[in-house]
Amino acid sequence: MTHEFRPRRAATRWRNLMAWLGAVACCTTLQVMAQGAYPSKPIRFIVPYPAGGGTDIVARLVAQKMTQSMGQPVVVENKPGASTLIGTEMLAKAPPDGYTLGLITDSHAINPSFFAKLPYDSVKDFSPVSQLVFVPLVMVAHPSLNVKSLPELIAAAKARPGKINYASIGNGTPHNLSMEWVKSLAGIDMAHVPYKGVAPALTDLVAGQVDLMFTGSSSALPYVKSGKLVALAVSSAKRLDSFPDTPSVAEAALPEFDFMTWYGTAVPTGTPKEITQRLSREIAQALAQPDVKERLATLGVVGAPSSPDEFAAFMRKETASLARLVRLTGVKAE
Fold first, then answer.
1. Which of 208, 235, 252 is the last residue of a domain?
2. I need a labelling partner for 88 at 20 to 30 A (CA). Which of 126, 178, 254, 264 fits?
3. Given a cut of 80, is residue 11 above it in pLDDT?
């Protein structure tokens, strides 16, 4: 009986093995089919900033073009707050299926040095997709401050230590960090007033509730043109085409200063490589459209699409550079 039983067991194991291999092949085929049909439903595009600011404008511009080319809606969802932590945590915890894309900025590279603990791992929980743009900042002041240049601001701040205040879009954000670097280089003291986004900060600045701030050139331009704000300096090393009469911070007073923010995109770690690369190509195609280039130029930002590997390398470099700036300025979480 023993000799008769063993062949039956072997045959059963063989049949089970073949069934398992067939199931694996079926699943693989289904996965390939699913990837081939991607996307088959709307894609969420999480923006960890309020509506109306430069991040939101650029994200919606790209999302519109991706919707047209991918055949499914790419829906922008604004999830602002906590120095981008709220929206970024949502991205980190989203299913890695290619249906959640997130906007990240240099705040993503700053936060690991700024916060003692994050609700996610800023490297391990994300797969970079593509950079979007470089964004020069413009230092703008309310006319009531009665300064028309950076040297005049520095003189006024030295005459009234701690009396001039500046707005930012939150503690530890690039807008905060860049102004703190100016303070450190110039040896001046100004009070910081954090807001939850560009729109509320600019509203109070235009109303004269705060004295000045760094903001994106696209946000500053209409207010400067209307005379509601005065442009003192731009953060980039060179002057901007949209602000030809406004010197750079380095040109005006502080030669060491050179600061530009950036926007990019990422997906949750585990997202299939093929999908990540597809999204990167779609973004590059969107940024290459003539009407998009024209719109970005009017916003004063520079399109900078990249491959996932290129963007990952850029982020590593930026994280190290911004960590040094956090240490230099002594900015800390509140």
1. 252
2. 178
3. no
Q: Residue 292 is which amino acid?
A: V
- Alpha-carbon torsion, ordered 80, 82, 86, 91, to 10 deg: 90
Q: Which residues contact 132 (CB under 8 A, 6 or more apart)?
A: 58, 62, 103, 262, 263, 264, 265, 283, 287, 303, 304, 305
Domain that holds residue 83: 43-134+261-329
Give the global pTM.
0.75
Q: What tokens were used for 202?
A: 């600019």
Separation CA 241–CA 219 (nearest Å): 15
* CA quadruple 63, 66, 67, 72: dihedral sign: negative
Specify if 239 maps to a domain: yes
Q: What is the pLDDT of residues 167-183, one digit of tens each?
A: 998 888 889 999 999 99
B/e letters for 223-233, b = 16+ CB within 10 Å, e = fewer, are: bbeeebbbbbb
Domain presence at residue 16: no
Quote the number of domains for the chain: 2
d(CA 293, CA 66): 15
Question: Rounded CA gap, 325 and 162, in Å?
Answer: 22
Integer Cα distance of 96 and 239 in angstroms: 41
What's the maximum distance between 2 C-alpha atoms anywhere in the chain? 104
294-326 residue pLDDT tens = 999 888 888 999 999 999 999 999 999 899 888
Helix/strand/coil for 305: coil
* Burial class of residue 289 in the structure, from the number of CB atoms within 10 Å of its CB (0-12 exposed, 13-18 middle, 19+ buried): middle
Eight-state DSSP code of residue 240: B
Closest CA to 246 of 269, 229, 267, 266: 229
